[in-house]
Amino acid sequence: MQLNLAVLPGDGIGKEVTTEALKVLGVIAGQNGHTLNYEEALVGGAALEAEGASISQATLDLCKNSDSILFGAVGLPKYDQAPADRRPEQALFALRKTFDLFSNLRPVKNLPVLQNASTLKPEVLNGVDLVVVRELTGGIYFGKPSQRFTDEGGRKAVDTLPYSEQEIERIVRVAFELAKTRNGKKKVTSVDKANVLNTSRLWREVANEVGKDYPDIELEHMLVDSAAMNLIRKPAAFDVIVTENMFGDILTDEASMLAGSMGLLASASLGSIKNPQGGQFGMYEPIHGTAPDITGQGIANPLAAIGCAAMLLRLTYGLETEANAIETAIENVLHKGYRTPDLYESGMTRLGTSQMGDAVIAELQK
Ligand code: IPM
Ligand code: MG
What we know:
Blueprint: E1 2-10, H1 14-31, E2 35-40, H2 45-51, H3 57-64, E3 68-73, H4 90-98, E4 103-109, H5 122-125, E5 129-135, E6 143-151, E7 154-160, H6 165-181, E8 187-192, H7 198-211, E9 218-223, H8 224-233, E10 240-243, H9 245-259, E11 266-274, E12 280-286, H10 303-317, H11 320-335, E13 338-339, E14 349-350, H12 353-364
Parallel strand pairs: 1-2, 1-3, 3-12, 5-10, 8-9, 8-10, 13-14
Antiparallel strand pairs: 4-5, 4-11, 6-7, 11-12
Helix pairs in contact: 1-10, 1-12, 6-7, 8-9, 10-11, 11-12
Residues 75, 89, 92, 249, 287 line the site of 3-isopropylmalic acid.
């Protein structure tokens, strides 16, 4: 198979971790008779500096002509005060909207071998295996008006949180379909704030309607504040969580701590678009950010980015065997005691970013 990718490493540690994911993809492609072709382009702060926009039209075109996007991270502290349209994050929003990537899958699994790395007790973490399905192209991230202004009352700002039934229906359906195929608890937890928000009351109504098509899947509704609590109280009770854009953003950072480190979590952003080969177009992105504090030191954890490579092979190309091989290799290096500093404990073997990539490749080559 031809694997034709757009690679957008972005800012901070994005470049370092994406390099490792590409190394692993190259090896797995070679082993299985696939050809890996990819083109890199700038995005985020790097693109703002060199090209005057956080993502150029040429880069969007490159993505459009590729099977999928392998993404690193965007955002740098120097842009903290910049206006909305001059921020690196804008590239993410442009990509999500342009390619209708409305469904963001963020799987969270607790590996017993990493339980010491978590701040939570092992008995809380046992059996955690959930996926958050975050709505990614609607809600308060995109609602208009969104602006600052000044009137006689002083400085003011407004953001708007809209949802249509179509937007809700399609994301809730993704969650139910996922619950059907996972060997999980066959449960969908729909998270909202229906005691306060109109959008949430609509969300709940539509979720109930969609749920009727899935009689074998349990549907529970949970208020977002309660979900935040239950994620650390009894996380193993969750299977598939579906929620709107901002709640999903917040809950997935929290949920990442169930795995042990943000440096472990991969995500896939999918939508309605087929790629030039007729497969699922997607953007694969580690959920950690640019980590400016450790950029350039060669110590970032590349396992989330490598996990993205596995998700890409599975979801865009249907290459389940290759995806499983990568995920098994990741588990094996952890079992061997290899750790980047984010997960290091005494008695383990400390590795840098590229050494960790090499360790995963060594497992694949066994
Ligand atoms: C994420 C990130 C982004 C988001 C930021 C970088 C804009 O936090 O993908 O979770 O809020 O969507
Ligand atoms: Mg986030």
